[in-house]
Amino acid sequence: MFKLIIFNSHFKKLLLLNIMIAFSFMSNWTYQADLLNAKKTSNGDLKELIGNVIIEKDSTILMTQKALIFSNNEKFQLFGDIKMIDKENILTCDTLFYFSNDVENIIAFGNVNFENDNNVIKSDSLYYSMDNDSISAFGNAFLNHLESTMTAAKINLTESKGFLGNSFHAQNNVVINDNEVIIKGSEVFYIDSIQHMTILEDAHIIDTNNEILGENIFIQFQDSMIQQILIDENPIINRKITNTSYESNTYNNLIDIISGESMVIDYIDNKLDKVHVIGMANSLYHVIDDNLLEGINEVSGDSIVFLFNNDELSKIKVSGGGKGFYTPEFQNSNIDSIINYFAEKIDYDIANNINHFYQDGSIQYQDTKLNADYMEIDWDTNKLNSYKVNDKQPIVQTDKKSSPILGDTIYFDLISKIGMINKGRTELNNAFYHGHEIVHDNQNNIYSSQGIYTSCDLDHPHYYFKSNKMKMIPDKYIIAQPIILHIKGLPIIGFPFAILPNKGGQRQSGWIMPTFGYSERNGTYFHNLGYYHVLNDYSEIKVLSNFYDRKGFKLNFKFRYNKRYNYSGSFSSTLVQDLNSGSSDIKNIFSNATQNNNLIWSHNHQIDPTQNYNFNFHYISKNDFYQQSQVGYNSETRLQQNILSTFNYRKSWSNSDNSININLSDSFNPLIKNNKPTSSVPVFYRNMILPQIKFNHGSRLLFGDGAKWYHSIYYGYNSDYKASRDIGHLLLENNEVKDSIRYKNGINHRFYLKGSKKLFQHINFNTTINMLESWILGYKEPQLDSNGLFIDNQFDSSDKLKRRLTGDLSLSMGTKLYGVLSTNIFNLTAIRHVVSPSVTYSYRPDFSQQNIFGLNIDYVTKDSSGDIYDYFSGNLVPSTPLGKRESYGFKLNNDFYGKIFTNGDYKKIHLINWSNSLSYNPTYEEFKLSYLNSSLRSTLSSNLNFNINLNYDLYKTNNGVRINEIANSPRLSSLNSSIQFKLFGKQIDRFQDTSLDSTEDNTNTNIYDQYEPILTSNNKWQATFNLGSFFNFNNSLNQWDKDFWFDSNLDFNITKHWSLSYSARFNVMSSEIVRHNLMIYRPLHCWMFSFQWYPGIGPNNFGSGFQLLIKVKNPDLQDIRLKHTEGNMFGF
Questions:
Q1: Going by C-beta distance under 8 Å and a sequence separation of 6 or more, which residues neighbour residue 722?
Q2: pLDDT band at 1005 (very low <50, low <70, confident <90, very high)
Q3: How many other CB atoms are there within 10 angstroms of residue 45's CB atom?
Q4: Strand (E) positions, 33-74?
Q5: What are 64's strand-pairing partners?
Q6: Would you say residue 901 has pLDDT above 90?
Q7: Which residues share a beta bridge with 1078?
Q8: Is the sign of the CA dihedral 426, 432, 438, 442 positive or negative?
Q9: pTM of this prediction?
Q10: How far is the C-alpha of 197 from the C-alpha of 230, rounded, in Å?
Q11: How many CB atoms lie within 10 A of CB 493?
Q12: Secondary structure class of 1055 (helix, strand, coil)
């Protein structure tokens, strides 16, 4: 590093000697001046020399402008341009004092400068005391000795008996430059007796290749050479290194950085030997090989030790949670991405370019990650070796999707990504693989010898496939040759080779295994034999087939596609080939058979965020296609009557809140088409919308934002145009069937105004005005006979436009009232009652009148008898509202809330809701009051709730006939109720002895009373019951119509692994079981067992059957199963 040679004792003594010699024997000197004064003073004789004073003796010359010499007490003072020359020594200053009582002292002021051939000292002032043999330089102090310099605001030199002969103390912006080494600090102490230097506050030590920084630095010297450096706070070493540029072959300077909480630096023979960083240690190290930069290594840990050989870094040892990352220089290295690593202990042998990782080590390169208790990496070959330590196997994972591989020994090439694992084990897609030797290639394929494949995660699996050679392709297949299925270690069945799926339940191409059976009606059969093929990430094809040796066959084809955020859809078809009636010989399936099919195409397309379209195309070749036995397995399919095809387009404008919809549709009912009409009234079996166009303008404020009442008024508008074409048939008088076609059209324009206002701060007042204008493009005018009466089905057609404007008004008012009742019932501390009364009013005029509000309207026409004909009826607009409507509604809602204290906290629950409603219509001729409805709902807990709905008639009855007279009290006319409750039993985990906690004298001899059961969170059993009823009073029969049913669902965990479920529905009135079924389930470790039994109902045992299923849980191995099904419940 450097030798401390600055400011030895000769420099200080030489300065003092010259001054003392000059003034010790002033009487032996010769002197001259422009003016010489001599006088006596209280301090003795005084000589005053003024102007060009020169004092000489031998080779010493002293020059000044003024000198005062006191002869008695050896005191003198010099003033102005003082210069002393003694051979090669020169001293200059502005003022100099010498005085001696018991101790000699010298003080020099103003531009003090002393120099000779090897030494310079400069300062604003200089003080010397013989008492402690010290020199103090103040103000811009500068010392120079040979090649060493020191600058500071203050420097104090003290003679010592140490190695250098003096100690020093420098303060304020101290800079020491000693033999190409710079020391900086706010304050520097050097104690020569122990050869120790202290640098305080923002300390720096800088040499040619290193910069050492710290809050405080402590240096221990040995014979002027550094032995140890200690940095107690914020240490940093910046170490300069040089490398050659790859492109320009020029030299670049780089900086290695070492930092931490504290640092100890050791030297041997003045060369760096060891750096020990303690606490939050960090290092940035440039990896240089053949003078070329290969990468940058950054590492941190609790402690880092750097070892040096001949001043060159040779080893790095990291302890305590070491972690770091290596960034390669891509032009000079085979490694092309960052390597992250972690270990409790890390050793880096720089000379051999090898890393060792100990205890919980982890290395990640690209998507490859390896964990082990010991790892070794040779960076020259990029080979990684890892071994089993303390029964802990190393683990390697080659990408984020693949599962980790375990083994006793792992060898891995970071560049080629090819690895070999001895006694390996891994998991892929919910399956496990074992192998005596596993090889992993750069395509993530896995090869194993003596391999085992299973979905059982035990070390000794319940079942497995074993093969001498096995290749696993992730997310695709497993290829094995040969392969043998073992169950409980016993070989069951073998194959010369096998290709097994390996997609973990994801989409995968492959065969779909059928189920086999026998039916009395259709003979031996198989169901759902097929193939599923994944075309790409966006599409797939599925083909299924059914075959009956007495019936025929069916093929199902489905093509599905889906591109996210763009489009999706499916195309499917079912082909049925059935033997003709009377034939059961399957060999005639292509000569004496009937074939029919359907086509369904659905598509949805998102053009952009504001517009999309979709269509659905449906075709059948035979009107009763869905009623065939091979198609209509269930009632829902058999009752399918409408064959519907549609097209819909939608566009929206978010900035204006407008949107438009265009719709086309074609609905066809084949069953009506097949049925012969029975009257002259047309029956339509096909309806086509050509087209329907809807425009909508969203709700907006009518007068904009503001605080006035009218600023809360909203308006909205929408328009709907629709045209249709109906095709049907009718029966003529001669019993002939005639086709009939009908066209309809209409446009509706809807406009509404809505406003809300709070009255008296507590009442909410709401108003709604709805207006509807309808247009029809053509209408029928009924013909009249001679008496002015309508002639049935006789009309004159008109193609003129006819308009109609209708509307209605509604008003509502409501408020809320609150009440609180304090209670102390169990945990219930308070009840809150919220009453919500409301009143509504609605009005609509009679649009069958010719004049409304002074306006002449022509929406309907009447004949002489008063019968009304509506021009708009039968079109695609609503019929004209006939008759005035005026209604008043009254509703009283009651909500009861409870406040309970449980588990040290308060909780709010909803106890009961009780609602009552009634309406009054003054426009009715009779029964102007509606039924009084009252409903009660409660959810007291998650395990109990009930609902009751009651209707009361306010009018009297006479002989079973309702009359228009108010009864004295409401009469219950209908009741609908349901009650649901749950029961469960917890499983007992253990019993707690409570006898030790009791201080009472318990004389009970029953030992079971001393124990309290500790329950688990799991239910041993659970039961859900639902009780429902409906009662309606029949006035004409003067009796109640009743319906009463009961549902139950029971779940039992018989043992830890066996569970049983039973569900049933009972008709209580008829004491009959409507349906019930039983299921037994047993989850095995890697298998699943279930048995479902449907006992059936009625004399024909309808809905009976059972299903036994045992299968492997793994979704890739679902075809390894045993399944048996019987009964009409499953279509057999």
A1: 689, 691, 692, 693, 745, 746, 747, 876
A2: very low
A3: 12
A4: 35-41, 44-57, 60-70
A5: 53
A6: no
A7: 1062, 1093
A8: negative
A9: 0.52
A10: 10
A11: 9
A12: coil
Bond from prior residue into 404 cis (ω within 30 degrees of 0)? no
CB 820 within 8 A of CB 795: no
Residues in the chain: 1132
Residue in 99, 31, 97, 43 with CA at minimum distance from that of residue 72:
43
What is the C-alpha separation between 53 and 65, in angstroms, rounded?
A: 5
Residue 551: exposure state from Cβ atoms within 10 A (0-12, 13-18, ≥19): buried
Q: What angle do CA 638, 642, 644 make, to 5 degrees?
A: 130
639 to each of 346, 645, 676, how far by Cα in Å? Answer: 75, 18, 19
Q: Which class for 336: exposed (0-12), middle (13-18), buried (19 or more C-beta within 10 A)?
A: exposed
Give me the residues paired with residue 946 across strands. Answer: 938, 979
Cβ pair 318, 335 in contact under 8 A: no
Top pLDDT among 765 and 587 is at 765
Q: Where on the phi/psi map is residue 457: left (φ > 0), alpha (ψ -120 to 50), or beta?
A: alpha
d(CA 970, CA 951): 9
Which of 231, 232, 281 is closest to 260 using CA atoms?
281
Q: What angle do CA 679, 685, 687 make, to 5 degrees?
A: 130
- Tell me the CA distances in angstroms from 555 to 115, 621, 630, one per residue in order: 114, 15, 10
The per-residue pLDDT for range 523-571, each reduced to its tens digit, is 888 888 888 888 888 899 999 988 888 888 889 999 999 998 899 999 9
Kindly state the tokens that stand for 106.
């010298």
Give Cα 512 to chain centroid, integer Å.
Answer: 36
First to last CA, the chain: 97
DSSP per-residue codes, 745-756: EEEEEEEEEEEE
